[in-house]
Amino acid sequence: MQHPLKNMEDVTIDDLGIPLDSEGNFRIQIKDYVHVLTGDELITEMTDQLDIRGSVRNALLRKANKGILAVLKKGRLRLDDEAREAFDLNILIWFADKALKGDHKQYLTK
Fold it and tell me: Taking the C-alpha atoms of 58, 64, 70 and 73 in order, what is their torsion angle to the nearest 10 degrees?
């Protein structure tokens, strides 16, 4: 598979080298924080990111990065439900970008 991916047609979670548990989930680790994602939501987000213009995608990624860093400093448990959902979405956006570029494997937990 050639990175960065330009087309998600026929790309599966197995193609990305991401092992799923029995519920279709996998875990990523960012610093000391571990987050659970599903294979389906990752593939969907990667497809969505390829459908938007590059400049918009880069702006969304910058915003997601800022949001992630702020929460990692503050602590996820201090967030209300709405802020927690925004953080979860930011993690998904960020990790989908890493997967499109082929830089995702270092964040997978074992």
Answer: -110
